[in-house]
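In practice, a research group might receive sequence data for several interacting partners and want a quick structural hypothesis before committing to experiments. The following worked case mirrors that situation: the sequences arrive first, and a predicted assembly follows.
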Amino acid sequence: MGGGIAAYKSCELLRRFQASGHDVTVIPTKSSLEFIGSSTWEALSGKPVTTEVFDSVHEVPHVKLGQEADLFVIAPATANLIAKLAHGLADDLLTNSVLMAQCPILVVPAMHTEMWLNPATQANVQTLRDRGIRVVDPDVGRLTGPDSGPGRLPEPQAIEIAAQVLVDGYLPDLDLHGKRVLVTGGGTRESIDPVRDIGNRSSGKQAWAIASAASVYGAKTTVIAANVELPSPVGSTVINVKSALEMADAVDEQLGEADVLVMCAAVADFRPKAPADVKIKKTSDDFVPAPIELERNPDILAAVGARPEADRPLLVGFAAETVTDEAQLIEYGLGKLTKKGADFLVANPVGKDQTFGEDSNSGLVLGPEGIVDRVEKTSKAGLANALFAACREKLSS
Ligand SMILES: Cc1cc2nc3c(=O)[nH]c(=O)nc-3n(C[C@H](O)[C@H](O)[C@H](O)COP(=O)(O)O)c2cc1C
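A structural hypothesis for the assembly, expressed as tokens:
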């Protein structure tokens, strides 16, 4: 980690990696210890921490660290550190280890907007990207002091999901620079009255993993989120909606720009026909409200799928099914894919404690000819990678 004001967020990132079972070594720069001291890192990681190549020389630590790591996550990455990496400088343990690294590298920049937009920084970022290092764009938001703009370090949870993309089924050669990916996620809520809704339990985690993967691979990513309580996925613009109608409008507005639309949201098929203007109250002890009459919501996936292929993005649907039998999952999935006109469809089993809200997922990636990929239980980032692997050929044509 580099010496940026956001270094404190890396303590939580470390905890998150540990909680998901990873062995984490912290390599700070000298400047970063001005923000978070080595005692904190040693206590949290349970390992000695140094900035020097000349400590424990008998172990040649930079060689060992570089050779043994499965992933380097550099967060926060300062403008200075990015410049050093771009030029191959090696004057401390971190820069030496990164030069040794044989594994994927995720760089998460954080700095003031002016430093981020400076042509020198942008050129250095481009150099790293050209070499296959994954550099995500910083968040837009509050910076040091009262300033605000692009340059904020994404939240630790978002960095963790991005890191998973580089581990679970990572696609080292995939390059989505120049592509626009639109993802819908979460679960719509349909009003009964001003304080009550009909909803579902979709958390948005799968959509977040897809958006994170798209950003890691370089796409310009927009998520249309229905009631998702997660920090923004790395490098993504988030448009918040509540109901299926709002989601349909947002998809319509964003569609023209997109090369791929992944419809991952759980969209209500029906909505109350006449939501009450005021809260429905128990007006007497034996009051029972009238049954709620429902009407159909627009079918967003089918509406996009009905467009001529040249007039729509590559279309990926999701089908959440409460089945236990794979044959049934395939039958339902292929039926939905054909009916909606999607190019690919991810069919996944849902149910009690399965998929909704969980960090893992499994499923079948289906194309018009049948199974493209059978994804055994993995992180939601792993499923996102399987999805982009399936789309890859059509996306590059
Ligand atoms: C209070 C303070 C906050 C800073 N925050 C950042 C930052 O967020 N991003 C950045 O690139 N540099 C930041 N800097 C400047 C770096 O600390 C400085 O460029 C340093 O040389 C970076 O060293 P390193 O890349 O080896 O960690 C900050 C400096 C100070 C004093």
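Before designing any experiment, note the following. The chain has two domains: 5-153, 180-396. The mean pLDDT is 94.
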